[in-house]
Design a protein that fits this description.
heterodimer, A: mainly alpha, globular, B: 434 Repressor (Amino-terminal Domain), two-stranded antiparallel ribbon, 5 helices, 2 strands
């Protein structure tokens, strides 16, 4: 029997992947001390374990919040609520989470130059999401105007 | 919105119910309610034309401009 790939399947896959990422992010909270301890052991530079712990915990919590908002957005899409104020709020929160991660990683650049890439990628993702948020807000306003045109 | 829709007054003058007007103008009662309660963002010329035809009035009898913020 031939199975046809539909948008419902695609949405289910997205929700499943997002849920897996959420579980991984929650699990990572318990592994952060082990990761940072291992990093300090293999790194030949000065130890920065405590700073890494703080950065990783804040980043992970921001990541969990962002993934949670993503799940909310996917739920709205499943309910066919696309251009609603709730989705604009979700995008705004995710965007600020990205900016938050960028801000948290910036001080690490002083100790490890490569951290600049993480900060840059997070800030760029935040910027893209912010533009998406503006786009969604304009679409919500257009939909409202259309709905209330008699 | 500084444009006020005074549909109630004209409907009362012509003694026509909301259901009747909605049917004659060919819009849903829900949309007529949006119009009456000043929730509408825009009115199509075709809708305005039908309302004026059925209520035998001018657009100015239904639509009123009231500047926001009151008097200076």
């Amino acid at each position: 029997m031939k199975c046809k790939w539909t948008s419902a399947h695609s949405l289910r896959l997205s929700r499943l992947l997002t849920l897996i990422v959420l579980l991984l992010a929650v699990a990572a909270l318990f592994c952060i001390p082990i990761i940072t301890e291992w990093y300090d052991a293999v790194s030949e530079q000065e130890p920065i374990r405590n700073l890494l712990n703080v950065i990783f915990y804040i980043s992970d919590m921001l990541g969990i919040l962002a993934v949670w908002e993503l799940l909310g957005m996917l739920g709205n899409i499943a309910k066919e609520k696309l251009f609603v104020e709730q989705n604009v709020t979700c995008l705004r929160v995710i965007s600020w989470c990205c900016f938050g991660v960028a801000a948290v990683w910036t001080p690490l650049v002083y100790f490890r130059l490569l951290a600049v890439f993480v900060a840059f990628v997070a800030a760029f993702a935040g910027l893209i999401l912010r533009v998406m948020k503006n786009l969604f807000a304009a679409a919500v306003a257009m939909r409202e105007e259309n709905d209330y045109t008699i | 919105m500084p444009i006020i829709v005074n549909l109630d007054v004209m409907m009362a003058k012509r003694k026509i119910s909301a259901g009747d007007l909605a049917e004659r103008v060919d819009i849903t009662p829900a949309n007529l309610s949006i119009l009456k309660n000043n929730k509408a963002k825009a009115v199509r010329f075709s809708t305005l034309e039908a309302i004026c035809r059925e209520l035998d009035c001018q657009p100015g009898d239904i639509l009123v401009y009231e500047p926001e913020g009151g008097s200076p």
